[in-house]
Amino acid sequence: FGLGKAHDDIGDYAQAADYLRQANTIVHAATRWPRKQWRRSIEARISRILPAEQLAAPTDWTPVFIIGLPRSGSTLLADRLARHPDVCQRGELPWLPVLAEQIVTGNGEYRDRLQQAAATYAAQLRQDNSSAHWMLDKQPHNFMHVDLILSLFPNARFLYCKRHARDNALSLWMQSFQAGAQDFAYDFTDIGAAIQGSRRLMKHWLTRYPDAIRTVGYEHLVSDPTSVLSVLMDWLGLPAHDLLSSDADNSAIISTASLWQARQPINTRSLRRWENYAVHVPELLQFPDN
Predict the structure, then answer these.
(1) Is the CB of residue 170 less than 8 Å from the CB of residue 285?
(2) Whose CA is closest to 141, among 286, 288, 212, 38?
(3) Residues 146 and 205: beta-carbon distance below 8 Å
(4) To 5 degrees, how large is the angle CA 121–CA 125–CA 130?
(5) How far is it, in rounded angstroms, from Cα 165 to Cα 177?
(6) pTM exceeding the 0.85 threshold for the entire prediction
(7) Vertex 165: Cα angle to 162 and 167 (nearest 5)
(8) DSSP line for 211-238
């Protein structure tokens, strides 16, 4: 993967594609992503009807969830929003899948399970008694739990990061992830299933909860960040603030695969990047051109 990136940096896309194909073949041979299970889980979320139970919304803070597939701009967006003095970013918290399982399959009254889950999650999100009124969780796969999150926190807001499918697929395929993190990323058929499933589920959530979700196109974000960030601050209810010239908190820990990109100035170099690889990686043409 490192050699692939090095050749990509100098514009030698044929050699980059060769190294990346070797790398992905090696990892994919040792890693099997449960594609059928993924598709079933998407269908299960779409057909699921939860009990009509909802907790009271917090009055002094707002949870903000940045969701979508990895490599779709979530780290970039979180980094910029976290430069606002009223925003605290918690990174990619691992709690919601566990809490969701406890809510759906646990024992006792459903409302009691909701209250326990909300208290547990809030304790993790606000662990140091931060004075920030907007708390960011940028675990992208939280898009699987939008309905449950709104039962826990009716005032929750979701920023859905969406990227051109071919660019998103290429960016996933070029990245070496931690073991078990994104096991679909090493095979284009798996990547295609992940993109299709996530888009199908997000279309469902957007229809069901249109007031709670805002789509953030990667292409728009990097092409016109001033406008996009201004609109998002207004939608979230944040006071106006310059998120572009504000200094980043270089002590903040970024533990995602987008560490390098998040430290760079916003740029458009990755737009339609797939076109550099179309001849060498024809599998990219199986994805929609949007």
Answers:
(1) no
(2) 38
(3) yes
(4) 145
(5) 19
(6) yes
(7) 100
(8) TTEEEEEHHHHHHSHHHHHHHHHHHHTP
CA atoms of 257 and 247, how far apart (whole Å): 22
CA distances from 108 to 100, 102, 105, 122 (A): 15, 11, 10, 21
pLDDT by residue (tens digit) across 149-176?
A: 999 999 999 999 999 999 999 999 999 9
Largest CA distance in the chain: 60
Structure tokens at 62: 């707002």
CA 96 from chain center: how many Å? 14
d(CA 172, CA 145): 22
Distances (CA, A) of 123 to 9, 65, 87, 117, 118: 43, 16, 17, 10, 8
Summarised one tens digit per residue, pLDDT across range 66-102 is 999 999 999 999 999 999 999 999 999 999 999 999 9
pLDDT tens, residue by residue, 262-276:
556 788 888 999 999
Q: How far is CA 172 from CA 147, 177, 193, in A?
A: 27, 9, 13
Residue 203 has pLDDT above 60, yes or no: yes
The least confident of 185-194, 253-262, 267-276 is 253-262
Counting beta carbons within 10 angstroms of the beta carbon of residue 146, is it exposed (0 to 12), middle (13 to 18) or buried (19 or more)? buried
